[in-house]
Design goal:
Largest sheet: none
Strand content: under 5%
Distance between the termini: 19 Å
Radius of gyration: 16 Å
Shape: globular
Number of domains: 1
Number of strands: 0
Helix content: 55-70%
Number of helices: 7
Amino acid sequence: MNNSTTLHIARFLLLVVVQITVLNQINFLGFLNPYLYIIFILLAPININRSLFLVVSFLLGLIIDMSGDSGGIHAAACVTIAYIRPVILRSSFGLSYEFQTVKLGNVSFGERLVYVTLMVLIHHLILFSLEIFNFSHILLIAKKTLFSSVFTLVVTMLVLVLFRRRDS
């Protein structure tokens, strides 16, 4: 196992533990909860085996679901953003993605913000649509998606800035 693989396994485990033990206990204003565990999906290598990535993303969501008894909504949201990640990467980074030279630490803040925002919004829209599962409550879905996305986005960007690797 090389250092990169060890780093990804450690990141997976750390994010799961922090999400379950700390972040799932936060319920700010009754509905705001940061979902920091999606950083694992955001920071996965560009050239990762796609099938393996989808399976690991499913397992990530499933572990979060099992800890919170949420019936698979996190797993569905994780698999969805893992599946559409190449499209979001292409639209956020353009030619850098096409030539597989994208490293999240080396791109401009604006490009990084666009990428993270799109992934977080899609994840949260799917998550809360499945949680509420009633389109007569579309405003509640929109409210939870918007406010939790902003909260998650701020925390995620802070973590990415504070813990970014200098050599990446």
